[in-house]
Each structure stands twice: as C-alpha cells, then as structure tokens.
Amino acid sequence: MVVMDLTTNAFQITMANLAVKLGKEAGAEVTRYAPEGSFGDYAGQIAIIENLITKKVDFIILVAGHPKALVPVVSKAMKAGIAVVNIDNRLDTTDVVSFVGVDNGAGGKMAVDYIASRLGGQGKIALLQGETGNPVQILRTMGFDLGAAVHPGLKVVAKQGAHWTEDEGLQVMTNVLQANPDVDAVFGESDNLAVGAARAVASAKTGKKVIIVGYDGQDAGYKGIKDGSLAATIRMDAEAMVGLGLKHAIQYVKQGGKRDGIPPETYIAPELVDASNVAKYMK
Fold first, then answer.
1. Where are the alpha helices (DSSP H) in 228-278?
2. pLDDT per position in the chain (283 positions), as tens?
3. What sequence ranges are listed for the domain Periplasmic binding protein (predicted)?
4. CA dihedral over 175, 179, 184, 189, signed as positive or negative
5. Which pick of 41, 67, 92, 249 has the fewest CB atoms within 10 Å?
6. Which of 161, 157, 177 is nearest to 169 (CA)?
7. Cα–Cα distance for residue pair 20/28, rounded to 1 Å
8. What is the rounded distance in angstroms from the CA atom of residue 232 to the CA atom of residue 244?
9. 153 three-class SS
10. Which domains, ranges and CATH numbers included, belong to the chain?
C-alpha cells in the first residue's frame, strides 16, 4: 500500500505509479491511497491509515503530510505488525521500518550555487516556497538560505509560500515582479512553481532574462529547460526512492518484523539537470 499526501501533485503521482509498477515486479500487490483534500490534509491520511490497520495490510509506504500529526497512527500501525516505511516527507519519529528520502537541504543549496554561477555571484534572487511547514519545504528553504549565505553577492528580495502549484507560482511571482521588476533569478521549490514563475516573467514582458530553477525533475520542468523558459531543475530520483522503500518493506515482512540488514535512514543525492543533460531524462 502507498499513502500519498495529495493526488494532484505530479511528483507524488509519479511515486505512486512507480510503487504500483515496482510492487508488481516484486510480486507485491500495491494500492494507492490519498486524501481528497488539499496539501496538509493529514487528518485524511490518518483516516486512511486507520482503515489500513483494520484491513490488516502487510505494509504501508508513506509520504507524510505532517511530521508530527501522523506519528501516533504510524506507531499504532507498527504495533499492529504493519511495516511502515516513510519516504520523501520525513516523520518526527524512528518508529518506522526505515526512512528513504532525498537530501533536500543539499538540493536547495545546489539550486543557489547554480544561480550564483550563472550570475557571476551578483544579483537579486527570489524564492517561491512550497507548503509552509512541510518537511520538504523546510529543508529546501534551509538549503536555499545556506546557499545565499555562502554567496553574499546575491540579494534575496522575496521569499514567499506558494503551496507547490503552478497557479500559485504564477500569482506569487507576478506580485514579486511588481515589487522587484529587476529580479535576476528565481528558485521555485517545485517544478510547478518554477513553471508558474516562468509564465509570470513571460507575461511581464520586461525583456529581461530571468534565471529560473525548479525542483523535483518532472516532465514540466524538463520541457521548460528544453524551451528555454527554465534554466535548470534539481532532480529527485523517484524510482530509487520508491524502489528502496518498497524493498525495505518487503524485507521487513519476510523477516517476520525484524530490521536486520535494513538501514534506519537512507538519503539519495539530488542531481542538477540543465540544458547540457536534460535530453537524458525527457520522455
């Protein structure tokens, strides 16, 4: 079973589809579940997990909508003998089989380092954040802040939440441009945000080239790099993350609830994708 945070987020849909595909290849039946509400609907996730406990499923691959709120129900599932593997958004608990995720702090800094290299270390930059308080948002912003500190010639002129979506990326970036028409670069904490920011820049018609970097490594980001509206994206290896999480869950079940040979946490390095290597990832 795979429990996502949201059914409309491109990266989470990719992970869920991979879980079904890789589960089938491993001989495991995997079903997708997600709340019907918006990002952060952790109450919906709790209800889903409670239902899965009642159904006595063997394992749950969880993308947590909240780092703390889901801890009690996850502990309940583990006590019921259900293997819970936490991927992507990290829970504030070690009471899971394992955690598998991407080093989002390193990815956030990687984005700023790239922007600094493109701007010669000098310029005005804006940050479009994801869902405020989401574990991934926190880490990507921490990486951004670290990168900005390392490059003192970069001036952060805006830092605003935009809920991961393209439409909010468009809206927030439109506001940023009104206040800062001379902004040189933007880091969107998801490819959707970056694409929305690119739409805002195109609509503003300032004639200025703005360096826009996204995050996730989704088709929309790759297409933006290909057409020149985006400069780069920070790629997360969804298949590696889901595959390893699934492997840990199946191993734990086969070992009768023992963690032998299963690392408590695994971080997968992010990768910069730009015009030089985007063809490798485009479908």
1. 238-254
2. 676 665 556 788 888 888 989 999 999 999 988 887 666 678 889 999 999 999 999 999 999 888 899 999 999 999 999 999 999 989 999 999 999 999 999 999 999 999 999 999 999 999 999 988 888 899 999 999 999 999 999 999 999 998 888 999 999 999 999 999 999 999 999 999 999 999 999 999 888 999 999 999 999 999 999 999 999 999 999 999 999 999 999 999 999 999 999 999 999 999 999 999 999 998 7
3. 2-256
4. negative
5. 92
6. 161
7. 9
8. 26
9. coil
10. 2-101+237-268 (3.40.50.2300), 104-235 (3.40.50.2300)
Q: For residue 42, give the H/E element and its range.
A: helix 42-55
- Residue burial 81-108, b: 16+ Cβ < 10 Å; e: rest: ebbbbbbbbbbebeebbbbbbbbbbbbb
Q: In what order do the strands lie in the sheet with 32-33?
A: 32-33, 2-3, 59-62, 83-87, 98-102, 265-268
Place of tokens 């951004």: 144
Residue 198: both structure tokens together? 């690119």
Q: What is the pTM of this model?
A: 0.90
* Contact present, 181 and 175 (Cβ < 8 Å): no
Q: Which two tokens stand for residue 49?
A: 């997990």
Supply 77's token pair.
């599932």
Location of structure tokens 């790239």: 114
Q: List C-alpha distances in Å: 56 to 10, 18, 28, 77, 132.
A: 29, 23, 15, 9, 34
Assigned token pair, 109: 């800094």
